[in-house]
Specification:
Blueprint lengths: L1 H14 L2 H6 L4 H9 L3 H13 L12 H15 L4 H7 L1 H14 L3 H22 L2 H38 L6
Helix pairs in contact: 3-4, 3-7, 5-9, 7-8, 8-9
Length: 176
């Protein structure tokens, strides 16, 4: 069991590297792609990558004070007593991901955007509830940037897909 504690400490130190905070929201892009393509394997691989991504970057020599504060608050929250309310909040993550997968599986852009933005905004609000302002703001910037990028890419790809399907049918009746 000692090796598990060492592994957790090793990963937690790397989680202080804010680069991992910026890439985590971007995992919604392959998740959305594989959901749209109805690929269970792709979804599963993306979820494994998301779960391990906090340890991909080296531990920073001097973590930002806001990062230290936020992660300390997050750790205290996660290791504290689990109430029914805390369980309900924790279930928002799989509900959001399940909602996103279902929306894209069914080709619903509106519900996909509701899931993406609802999940991202919930994470931001949650960070202000569990942490002080400095810690929450440390998370706000990567979360907000991730939401902007993910929304832009999803909307761009959706529009591109729609234009690709409309243009050939518009010329189907022309003779030349």
């Amino acid at each position: 069991m000692e090796w598990l504690n060492e592994l957790a400490a090793w990963a937690w130190a790397r989680h202080h590297n804010e680069l991992s905070w910026y890439i985590r929201p971007l995992f919604l892009l392959p998740f959305a792609y594989f959901s749209y393509r109805r690929s269970g394997w792709g979804i599963a691989v993306t979820l494994v990558a998301l779960a391990t991504s906090m340890a991909w970057f080296p531990a920073p020599e001097h973590p930002a004070p806001g990062a230290i504060e936020f992660l300390a608050a997050e750790r205290e929250y996660l290791l504290g007593e689990w109430t029914l309310a805390k369980i309900a909040v924790a279930l928002l993550v799989p509900v959001m991901l399940g909602g996103l997968a279902a929306a894209l599986w069914q080709r619903s852009l509106i519900w996909a955007l509701v899931a993406i933005n609802g999940g991202g905004l919930s994470k931001i609000v949650w960070s202000f509830v569990v942490s002080d302002t400095a810690g929450a703001m440390q998370l706000f910037y990567p979360a907000a940037a991730g939401l902007v990028v993910v929304n832009a890419v999803v909307l761009f790809m959706w529009r591109r897909r729609r234009v690709a399907h409309v243009v050939p049918s518009a010329h189907a009746g022309s003779t030349g």
